[in-house]
Amino acid sequence: MREFMQNIEKDFEKSPIVDFKWHAIEMGLAIIQRCAFGKHEPLGENQYLKTVFKVFDFEEVCGSWLDSFFAATHDFVKFTHYLYIGTFLTNSTLDERDKERIEGKNINRQPDFLDYLRDSEVDPAEIMDKQKSTLDTKVQKNLTREELQAQCIMFLIAGSDTTANATQYCLYELAKHPEEQEKVFEEIELNINGEEEITYTTMQSMRQLDWFIKETLRHHPLVQTTNGIARRAMENTTIGNGIRVDKNVCVAPNILSIHFDKTLWGEDADEFHPDRFSPEESEGRHPMAWLPFGAGPRICVGMRFAMQEVKMALIYVLMKYKLEMAPEFQLNSFGLVIIKPDSLKLQLVERK
Length: 352
Ligand code: HEM
What we know:
- Its cofactor is heme.
- By secondary structure, this protein is mainly alpha-helical.
- It has helices at residues 2-14, 21-37, 47-53, 65-71, 74-103, 113-119, 124-134, 145-159, 161-176, 178-191, 200-204, 207-219, 255-259, 262-265, 279-282, 303-320; strands at 17-19, 231-232, 237-239, 243-245, 250-251, 321-325, 333-334, 340-341, 345-350.
- It has a single domain, classed as CATH 1.10.630.10.
């Protein structure tokens, strides 16, 4: 976070209007890279990851890598390179960790996701043997090396762009709603004392900040589209007012419509009102009215992690700057699987 702020400060020295887009992307990428790959590189210095990350900006050929697979091969080739690099990175990190364990190095290093995942690693032969002997068809809780790699790549794909974009939308809404920005800032001032380390517990107590992020994600659910959180019916069933869904049919909620549905959110559904997430105003609301992270057993596993990351970024920015809308800036969002701003220029005023 300090590096993220240093880069913003460098831009601010040149101009009070700062584009946050790449700063947020670098931050999201660096955090996941550290947690899922154990790679600690300075922000923005991992050039090849940055290049492949652009694949998700879908600037070329057509809408998405999946569409491209059918329409043209260009993006798809880039995407497979991305997976290849992801596999290479994970492999090299896993090898380093193996060495670490054997040689007893880095024992005092801070543990990360990779350490926890490695604790569940087993030899695939062991799983096969167990399954053969007990005829156990339950899913094993252990991971083979291949599964471990796949999890790391999944974290990188699902956990970097998403948080970066959520952070950008929050910064935009803070600038757009100065009165809400003031409420969040007052809460920060009340809870954080200058140089102090920002802890998980401190962030937990900051309710206004939490409601602010939730309201932003209601207005800007990053995953809005059918392929984002679709589900396949495992058997013939009937949902809602007698709608029949046959086995194997995919059903996807229209998240944007749900997030602005007046029957769920009240007459002020179109307004930006973070306090609607307060316990008093949330009472009796349908549990699936708010879906930026999906729902049910396959809800986003990184939800809490992402919320902490966004909170931390907002705290750091707000402690240093007041955010204002930059003249003539217009927010444009694009993307198919993940909706994102194409740039985010904000005017900064340094706080005393
Ligand atoms: C603001 C940030 C984020 C948003 C809006 C978001 C959104 C989502 C959504 C909508 C889903 C699909 C859930 C469903 O089908 O019900 C999902 C799944 C997933 N997310 Fe996130 N996510 C975010 C951050 C993260 C982070 C930081 C990580 C990793 C640390 C992560 C890892 C995953 C994984 C692994 C899945 C697949 C879960 C499964 O299929 O069981 N996400 N996310």
